[in-house]
Amino acid sequence: MAGQHLSSPSVRDESYELAYRLALEQLLHMDVAEVCRKAGAQYVISSSETTKQPVTRMVVQYVNQPYVVTLPDGEISLQESGGEVPLRDKILILHYLTTAKGSPATNRLITFGQLSGCASYFQVFQQLAVVPLLNRFGDEPELLLEAAAKLGGQRANYGDVSVIINAFTRVPVTVALWRGDDEFPPRGSIMFDSTVVDYLPTEDIREVCAIMARQLVKSVPPS
After folding, report:
1. DSSP state string for the chain
2. Domain 109-219 is of which CATH architecture?
3. Where are the domains of the chain?
4. Predicted model pTM
5. pLDDT in tens, 132-164
6. Is-contact 67 93, C-beta < 8 A?
């Protein structure tokens, strides 16, 4: 995401605000019905009670929770609680909507390292997304199943233990772990359907995986 490498919080916040405004402006110029079809989202068009102007509410599934995107004002909130959404997450949701091409899944998995132009992000991706999972679940990989279930994930058939979690409706993320032994430490991999770049920019793929990793680790605290 824009601003990820900037050290100054104020500069980073300004970069996030700009990214949010640009993504919202792009969405406002797109056909809502087509956007929702491609992204697997839902929408309802109604009239504002105060201004009587058309208001569109789009419902987007993001890491097992429904979010409401209201247009034209660009407000984004949790559907169930109406709670505040971090600006970083708002940008990811808007980028998903504006990027989604509606490509059907190929069921061919690729890793982050296979994405075009990912070289400058790969080490950061490992540190933010893979290493935290290994630190928490490497010695107890079965706990990953419990953690993933809390995010709507399901067991998969890769490695010694693996799960599939939908970051967005059309962005399934597969997390696989391999147990360590006397010679090798535990290993982990995060994989995607080969169409992932038709739904998110590379920087956002990294950011989404980092967010999911933190949520998985947090959902099963150490005993």
Report:
1. -TTTT---HHHHHHHHHHHHHHHHHHHHTS-HHHHHHHHT-EEEEEE-TTT--EEEEEEEEETTEEEEEEETTTEEEETTT-----HHHHHHHHHHHHH---PPP---EEEGGGSTT-TTTHHHHIIIIIHHHHHHHSS-TTHHHHHHHTTT-EE-SSSSEEEEEEEETTEEEEEEEE---SSS--EEEEEEETTGGGTS-HHHHHHHHHHHHHHHHHHS---
2. 2-Layer Sandwich (3.30)
3. 9-99, 109-219
4. 0.90
5. 999 999 999 999 999 999 999 999 999 999 999
6. yes
